[in-house]
Every structure is written in C-alpha cells, then in structure tokens.
Design goal:
The complex is a heterodimer of chains A (about 575) and B (about 35). Chain A is mainly α and about 575 residues long. Chain A has helices spanning about 5-25, 30-35, 40-55, 55-70, 80-95, 105-110, 115-145, 150-200, 205-215, 235-250, 250-260, 265-295, 305-315, 320-345, 350-385, 390-405, 410-445, 450-475, 480-505, 510-530, 540-560. The chains are: A mainly alpha (about 575), B mainly alpha (about 35). Chain A: It comes from Autumnicola tepida.
Chain lengths: ~575, ~35
C-alpha cells in the first residue's frame, strides 16, 4: 500500500461517515429516525436496497467464483425480479397502508401480538448473528492478505458504522448507501477497463471472451434438472424467487429500506429499479472475475491464493510435496504463457484452424492446472483441517494488491470497506428498530414521548453494534462460521416466510392456528436438522411448507371460520 | 389458495421488469453460444 492508496482509502471512508452524520442531523422523532423522514425517492430506495444486499464478501467472493467456476452463478439471481414484482404488488401496499415501522408490526394487525413477537425474535436471532459475520468475513480476508490486525480491523469497521448509524438512524444509512454504491461502481468499472488495458496489445475484448469461453468460463446457463448442480436455470428461477421473497419481503434490514419511501409508488419504483439492474450488475461483477482469469492466462498466479493456507502447508509435514506441486505449477504456467503470448503476437494473422488448435491446447493446460490446484487443496486440508483451502475469496484481493495501479488499490479497498459498512449499517438499523418497535415499545405500559423511543433506538443500535463486533472478534473460534450462520438462517427463514404468506394470502387462517403451527414447525425443523434428514438448504422450503400446511389443518379442525382482514 | 383480491394491481412496470429479465436470459444464451 502506497501513501496515495492510504489517502484515497481514508478520505473516501471519512467523507462517507461525515456525510451520513451531516445529512441526517436533526432526527428527533421516530418517523425521522426509523423511517428516515419517509421522504425517500425511488433512486435512493433502489440504491439502498442494492447496497444492503451487496456485502463486502460479494465483491471479494464473486469475482473469485467466476475465476474458478465461470459465469453460472448469475443464475442464482434469476428469481429476484419475480420476487420484486410480488413484493411491489402485495407487500408494499399493505405495509404502507398500515403505516408500519417494521414488517413484524403488520403481523399483530393481521394475527396477534404473540405471533408478531415470535417472528421478531426469530429475526433478531438470525440477523444478530449474521451482522457479526458481515463484519468478520471481510476483516479476516483483509487481515490475512494485508497483515492488518484482525481484531483492530473488526472493531474499526464496526465502530465506523456505529458512529453514523447511531447518530443519524435510517436517513444516515440511506444517504451513505448512495455514496457507497457510487464508490463501489466506480471501483468495479475502473478495474474492468484496467484489466482490458493490461491484456496484450492484440488481445481485445472479443479474444478475451474467446479465451474465457474455451476454458468453460462462459457457460452461463445450465438447463439440466440435476439437483447436484447448485446453480441451474431452474434452481435460480424457483429457489431464487423463494429466497428473494423471504429476504426482501420479510427481513427488516431490507423492508426498512423501502418503508422510507415518500409514497407507495416511490417504494415500488425503487424495487423495480433493483429488479431491472440486479442481474446485469451481478453479471458485470462476474465478468470482472472472468477478465481476471483471462489476465492470469498471461501472468503468474500462486498455486493457492490464500496466503495463510499456503503458509500453513509450507510449515507442515507436507511442505516438500507442496513445494514439488509449486514447481509443477510454475512449469505449467510457463508452457501456458508461451502459448498465450504466441497467440497474442500472431494477432489477426492467425487462421481459424490455428485458433481452434490454440484453444484446445489452452483448455488442456487449464485442465491440468485445475488438477494441481485440487491437489494443493488436499495438502492444505491434510496439514490443517481448519485452514481455508478454498481460495475463491482471495483471488480478487490478490489481483488488486499485486496488479492495480497506485490510487486504484486504495479505491478498491474503499469499495470492500464501503460494502461491509453498507450491509452492516442496514442490519444494525433493522435490529435496533425491531427491538424498539416490536419488543420494547410494545411492552411499555406507560405512554412515552417520541424522544424517548428515538433515544431507545440509538441505545439499541449501539447495543447490537457491540454484539456484532463481539461476535465478529470471537468468530474465528468457531469452525466453518459461514455455514453455521447459513444453517441458523435456514432453520428460521422458512418459518418466517410461511407466517407472512399465510398473513397475505390465506385470509381464513387465524392467529392461534398460525402461532401454534409456527411453534410446532420450529421444533420440527430443529429436530429434522439435528437428525440430519435433509441438506440444510432445503430447511427453508420445508419450514415454509410445514407452517402453512399445519396452520391450514389446525384452522380446519378448530372450526373458527371468522374472516380476518 | 392464492386467490387474487382486487387490491393487487398489475402495473406496466412489472411487465417491463419481467420482459427485461427474460431478454437478459436470451442475451446470456446468445453470448454462451458465441463463446462457450
């Protein structure tokens, strides 16, 4: 890191924190503090929704995913536009009509207080843990690569977010999201063009795409019905719709973004904006990863991009075998670079037959390289089962630090920190709002003024910020933390979505049936998870199906036919 | 079960989102066929 990188990084982050505090000064009532004044326009909502979803791990992981596995991950987002339409048609008009502060508040007007409280608590458990991970995940990668102190970095990210989120509430979160998205887009677009510029003179965009295609990186769509393939067109359309509906429709960290809308129309347009741009944005981030892959066809790469994992294996009994692998990899890369250089130098003079021959040879060498990387992972796992041998999170940051020009490195680090801050801010903001509105305010017997609840929300933001930082600082004590948080999410998310779907679409089901069904479902899902009957990702769908089915059965046998609106 | 009450109003912008995303998928298909 050069001085100019530090300057760019520090100035960008400081400006955003200052801007958040400055633009949100004077929030004195709950409407201002939790709903951001309720005057947000559609572009603010759209950018805020996108910034909330795009965490630091999105920008660290996604290009690495494309580097290793190609563009297929974009299919994961195909269900999102469908979910956006459902949310615009059903969720937003109801939330606005009831003028709620949180999604769970609606459940009391539809069912009763106990259903609202149960759902709010399920959200707090799941999102409270996820907030810690949102800080921890980028911190551990940046500390491994840059040598920065992990605890210090975790506290720094958390503290910066706490400063403007506590001070300005939802408005500060929304206005900083716009700046953060501007930094993120500038950084990613700059990187894309810099990579193209770094390719040899005769390698234009089309040749780069051909090289990527030869190596299987342009297999964007998978029409198969194979359940073993995680990303297919069908899993994207069906599973993606379901997941996006849960996340954008019932998770307060997203609901709070569109509740800030000036009107139903502004909120709807904000979500439409997200539905229009999300797939191209993800496609573009993956394309940056593919261009990093093409760049490395002409330049050296490490055998494994995670420096900590490499160090672990080199200090183990497998050091000698690993060094042999490194030598084999170097020889392979030399062959590959000779081949790609010759291709680049030949330029337009190359015939179609020669081009096909080049692609075949390159494909063979890349296949051999993949095998070497797999062997490297096996040695890392054998050296230390807790070491992160999957290096996809480290590919892009390795590229940034070793290849980008001065100043741009600082900008890209600002991109990663901005993304971490934007997601964390939304999470803390939502956790505090839910704690205040659904638990604290609802349980108060005495009438309090607005200022009291603004103060309470501030304290709860600080409280959840400290919890998130504390969880993030001890997170490396847990094995496979991301999986742990995903498991917790899968255990609760399906049940929560099922409750909301009952509330919106099955009008004859009442509170007691819903609450009993939700309670039984939660126990059943935890039981199914403990007995390891199905992969945990399916618990989402199962939880949603069970709670809806059980509620319908209980309602039928309870004999209560009064219609609730 | 998914009875559609009158209050759920379809807007042109919803069609736009769905059509745009269908077009993206077609473009991805063309891109894949061109380079894969």
């Amino acid at each position: 890191m050069e001085l100019i990188d530090w300057c760019v990084l520090i100035l960008t982050i400081t400006f955003i924190v200052w801007y958040g505090i400055y633009k949100s000064r004077g929030s004195k009532n709950v409407q201002d503090y939790i709903k951001g004044g309720g005057d947000a326009r559609w572009w603010t909502i759209g950018l805020s929704v996108m910034a909330t979803q795009a965490s630091a791990i999105t920008f660290l992981s996604t290009p690495g995913q494309a580097f290793h596995d190609g563009m297929g991950f974009v299919q994961f987002y195909f269900g999102l536009p469908i979910a956006m339409v459902i949310i615009c048609m059903v969720f937003i008009p109801i939330y606005h009509r009831l003028n709620v502060y949180t999604a769970y508040e609606y459940l009391e007007s539809r069912f009763d207080r106990k259903t609202r409280t149960l759902t709010a608590i399920l959200f707090l458990i799941q999102r409270g843990l996820a907030a810690g991970l949102t800080i921890f995940a980028p911190a551990i990668i940046l500390s491994a690569v840059l040598g920065w102190n992990l605890t210090g970095l975790t506290i720094l990210i958390g503290a910066l977010v706490i400063i403007y989120t506590v001070t300005g509430g939802t408005k500060a979160v929304s206005v900083t999201h716009k700046q953060q998205m501007a930094v993120i887009l500038t950084g990613m677009v700059s990187t894309f063009f810099i990579i193209l510029h770094y390719l040899p003179e005769n390698i234009g965009f089309q040749s780069a795409m051909e090289i990527a295609g030869t190596s299987g990186k342009m297999d964007i769509l998978d029409f198969s019905f194979d359940f073993e393939n995680r990303y297919t067109l069908w899993s994207g359309l069906l599973g993606g719709t379901f997941l996006a509906l849960s996340y954008f429709g019932t998770d307060q960290s997203q609901v709070q973004r569109y509740l800030t809308g000036k009107s139903v129309r502004e909120s709807q347009l904000g979500m439409i904006f997200n539905g229009l741009l999300k797939v191209p944005l993800q496609f573009f981030i993956l394309l940056v990863g593919v261009m990093v892959f093409v760049f490395y066809q002409f330049n050296e790469t490490p055998l494994n991009f995670n420096p900590a994992a490499t160090e672990t294996v080199l200090n183990s009994e497998y050091s000698e075998q690993y060094q042999d692998l490194i030598m084999d990899h170097k020889q392979l890369e030399t062959q590959k670079h000779n081949l790609t250089q010759n291709f680049a130098e030949a330029g337009m003079e190359i015939s179609e037959a020669q081009k096909a021959q080049f692609h075949e040879k390159l494909n063979g060498l890349n296949s051999e390289e993949r095998d070497l990387r797999e062997k490297a992972k096996m040695f890392i796992d054998a050296a230390d089962k807790d070491a992160e041998s999957n290096d996809k999170d480290y590919v892009f940051i390795h590229f940034i630090l070793n290849n980008l020009p001065r100043g741009i490195v600082g900008l890209l680090l600002a991109v990663i920190l901005c993304a971490a801050m934007s997601s964390t801010a939304s999470e803390l903001n939502a956790l505090a709002s839910t704690t205040t509105i659904d638990l604290y305010k609802r349980s108060r017997k005495s009438e309090e003024d607005e200022g009291h609840f603004v103060k309470a929300t501030r304290w709860f933001t600080l409280f959840w910020g400290i919890i998130a930082i504390a969880f993030a600082t001890v997170a490396d004590l847990f094995d496979n933390l991301i999986q742990l948080v995903n498991i917790i999410g899968s255990i609760f998310y399906g049940n929560v979505l099922g409750i909301f779907l009952l509330a919106f679409f099955v009008k004859h089901v009442h509170s007691n049936a819903t609450f009993t069904a939700a309670f039984i479902t939660q126990i059943l899902i935890i039981g199914i998870f403990l007995l390891d009957i199905i992969p945990y990702l399916w618990l989402n769908l199962l939880g949603c199906a069970i709670v809806m089915l059980l509620a319908l059965i209980i309602e039928k046998f309870s004999g209560n036919s009064k219609v609730t609106t | 079960m998914m009875e559609k009450p009158e209050k759920y109003i379809w807007k042109k912008s919803y069609s736009l989102v769905l059509i745009a995303n269908a077009v993206y998928i077609v473009l991805f298909y063309i891109l894949m066929k061109s380079f894969a």
